[in-house]
Input
Amino acid sequence: MMHSLSIITKINLVILTVLGLCGGIVTWQVITYEKQHIEEMLVKQAETIFDQIQTLRHWNSGYGGVYVYKQPDMEANPYLYKVRPASNKKRPVEPEITDSRGRKLILKNPELMAMEIAEQSKKEHKTIFHLSSLSPINPKNAPDDFERRALRAFEAGNSKVFKSFLNGGNPYFRYMRALKSEESCLTCHGFQGHKLGDVRGGISIEIPMQEELAHAEGKQVVIIAYAIAIYLVVALALTVTIRRLVSTPVNRIIAFSKGLESEDDELLPENGRNDEIGILGHSLATTKKRILRQQLALREKAEELDLSRRTDPLTGANNRQHFILEMPRIMDRANRDNSPTSVLMVDIDHFKEINDSYGHAIGDRVLQQMVEHMLQETRSYDMLVRYGGEEFLVVMPNTETHSAVEVAERIRKSMESCHCVVAGDKTVLYTVSIGVYTSMQEEIDQMLLKVDDAMYRAKEGGRNRVVNTA
Output
C-alpha cells in the first residue's frame, strides 16, 4: 500500500506523523505534570494538616495537658494511669481531679485531644488522621499495614511516606509523617525507653481525592481537545501549503514527462514562468527534443541490428536465431486459429562434392541461387530459413499437406533445371532432397524431427525427390 503513494504524500505523512508524535508527547508530559502537581498539592495539604495537629499538640503539652469538666458521657483516659517518666518514678499527671466545689475534671493529654479532633474532622471534613506507634500504650493507636511500613521506613531514616489508593471505590491520598520524641513527650513515655529524637510514632492523614481528580480529568479533556484541534489545524494548513506549493506543480511536471514522446508544445508545464518550475519546464522541453532525436537514431540502429542478428549474411535468408524467435509465435497463432502449418526441409544433394570440385566460392554461389529460386516459389509470408550449412527450412502457415507438397515439387524442379552457376567453362548442376511435414498443434521439436526424418528418407530413396511424412 505504501509503495503506491507518491513521494510528496509520503513526506506529508511523515511530517504529520512526527507532528502527531511530538504533540502526543507534549500532551502526555502536560498531563503527567498535572498529576504531579495534584500529588504535590495533596502533600502540601497533608503537611499543613500535620503541622496544625502538631501545633495543637505542642500547645496542649506546653500546659502538661488540659483539664475539662467531666460530662455525663466522658470517662478519664484509663491509659494515663500507666504512663510515667521512667522506671520507679512517680506518675506526673492525674487523669481525674476534683475542684474546690466538688466538680470533677478529666485530663485531655495531647494524644487524647488529637484523637478526639480526628473524630470531629472525619465527621465534618471527611479528612481522617490517626496517631499510631509500633509500641502503643492505647490499642487504638496500633498501626495498620500502611502505617506499620511507614513507621519502619521512619526508623530507617525516611521522614514521610505517601500513596494514593481506593477505599470503597473512592480515591484517597494517604500521608504519614514521623513523630520524634521531645522533652515534653518523655514525661509520659519515658518508661518505654524513648530518648530525645527517637521515632516513637507517626500521624497518618487521609484526604479525599475525588474533587481534585475530577478537576484534573476535566483539565485533561480540555488539554487533549486543544491538542487535537491544534494538530488538525496545523495538519490542514501543512497539507494545503504542500499541495499548493509542491504537489500541484510537480503533478504538472509529471504529466508533461509522461508526454515526452509527444511533439505538442502545449504540454510544457508552467510555460512563461521564470521561477524554478518554469526553468524545469524549459529544461524538460529541451530534453524532449533531444530524446526524440535519439529515439529516432536508436530505432534505426535497432532495426539494423535486429536485421543483422536474424539474417544469414551469405544468402540473405532468415537464420536459425530468427526461426527460434518467430516459430513459437507462428505456432501460437496456428493453435488459436486451429489451422495447419507445413514445414519443408530442403537439403542440397552432394553439396560437399560441389565444394571439393569447384571450391567454396562456387558452393556459396549455389546457396545464393538456391535461396533466390525458393523465394520465387514461396509466398511473401512464408518463412525461409537457412537452418544449417546446406539445409533450409520453409515454414508455411495455414497450408495443407497437398499444397506444401506442390510447393516442394516446384522448388525441386526449379533446382534441377537451374543452369545459373558457372565455374569456368562448366555449368554446375545440382539437385535437392525435400522432406514435407504438416502439423496441427504440435510441439516444434517434434515437427523438426519428423520433417528431418522425411528429408533423410528422400536421400535414402535416391535423392532429387520429395517425401511427405503423413
The chain has three domains: 63-212, 265-308, 311-469. The two ends are 58 Å apart (CA to CA). The longest strand covers residues 170-180.
